[in-house]
Write a structure and sequence with these properties.
Layout lengths: L1 H9 L7 E10 L8 E9 L24 H6 L6 H34 L1
Antiparallel strand pairs: 1-2
């Protein structure tokens, strides 16, 4: 379901989806009068360098922008409640996964050089 949503909403195909966390809360959404409950699941994926997400539903969210993990961690962007509350967990999980990914890539390169 999430992979399909990424394809529909960002026009990119991803190979691997990594679950980070879940957050539940309540708020009054834009254009609404009453408070609503929500549940947000946070995932991330490592994109190929030629993949550029395209915002296909700009009326449903603010404009997207690119930032590094360091910028996300240190800067004070206007974030959704989920990203604000779970920021530290998100950053730590992505850093851990990137470390694993880089080790795996180095191992593959070494094995290819041995052949």
């Amino acid at each position: 379901c999430a992979i399909r949503e990424v394809r529909e909403e960002a026009r990119i195909d991803i190979n691997e989806l990594n679950y980070i966390c879940q957050h539940e809360g309540s708020c009054v959404f834009p254009g609404e009068i009453e408070e609503s409950l929500y549940k947000t699941l946070v995932y991330f994926s490592i994109l190929d360098s030629n993949q550029i997400p395209i915002q296909t539903e700009p009326d449903k969210s603010d404009e997207w922008f690119e930032c590094t993990l360091t910028e996300f961690e240190k800067d004070h962007y206007m974030l959704t409640p989920t990203l604000e509350v779970k920021k530290k967990e998100i950053v730590e999980t992505i850093k851990h996964k990137l470390t694993q990914h880089n080790r795996k890539r180095r191992r593959v390169v070494k094995e290819e050089n041995l052949e």
